[in-house]
Write a structure and sequence with these properties.
Order of helices and strands: EHEEEHEEHEHEHHEH
Distance between the termini: 30 Å
Largest sheet: 5 strands, parallel
Strand order of the largest sheet: 2-7-1-8-9
Radius of gyration: 16 Å
CATH class: Alpha Beta
Strand content: 15-25%
């Protein structure tokens, strides 16, 4: 068995069902923590162009995605909904210097991430009606597709990995504050 490398930083995996507001909370936290060198919000690489300002990712073709994964340039990678996603290997530089690194990922890669890095999961939750409204407002899918997406059963979270649940049912600023408070708390723990 390969021994897990030790990093002084923490990788925060932000997860949650479609429409809970993961990208919105991450964007708000990033804005509030801008200028603080202890935090990193890496851009994902996705095989789709961003549809809104809240989608902070870089676009790659599917062939580029496959090439990056095969070359080992991805810290984490997964495929979902016909798309490929990558968290770049550069996060290891941030973890090495003790940063809290926060990114939006699929629940399917939590165990893989925890085998490589010190991980804390943030599970964002929101009521079904609110999620439906947010998905409709994104304008990426038709009503049928949204209904199918909302009907999917969420993948269970591992029980042996530290996890914090944040409700994003109210004003966005409340969810952002909860996320920022958690990230600051994790950074304080890293420095102890």
């Amino acid at each position: 068995m390969v021994q897990k490398r030790t990093y002084p930083g923490t990788l925060v995996l932000v997860v949650g069902s479609s429409g809970v507001g993961k990208d919105s909370l991450l964007a708000g936290a990033r804005n509030q923590l801008t200028g603080h060198a202890s935090f990193s919000f890496p851009k994902r690489l996705v095989t789709r162009k961003p549809v809104s300002d809240l989608e902070d990712h870089d676009t790659v073709t599917f062939d580029e995605y496959l090439g990056l994964v095969s070359k080992g340039s991805a810290a984490l990678s997964w495929q979902a909904h016909g798309l490929g996603y990558i968290i770049p290997k550069t996060i290891e530089n941030d973890l090495e210097v003790g940063k809290v690194v926060a990114c939006n990922v699929s629940r399917t890669i939590i165990a893989d991430a925890a085998n490589k890095y010190p991980v804390h999961v943030v599970n964002i939750v929101a009521e079904l009606e609110l999620r439906a409204k947010r998905l409709a407002n994104r304008g990426r899918e038709n009503e049928d597709s949204i209904r199918r997406r909302l009907a999917r059963e969420p993948i269970a979270l591992p029980t042996d990995i530290p996890t914090t649940e944040i409700s994003n049912n109210g004003e966005m600023r409340v969810g952002i504050k909860a996320l920022v408070d958690l990230l600051v708390s994790l950074q304080t723990q890293n420095q102890e």
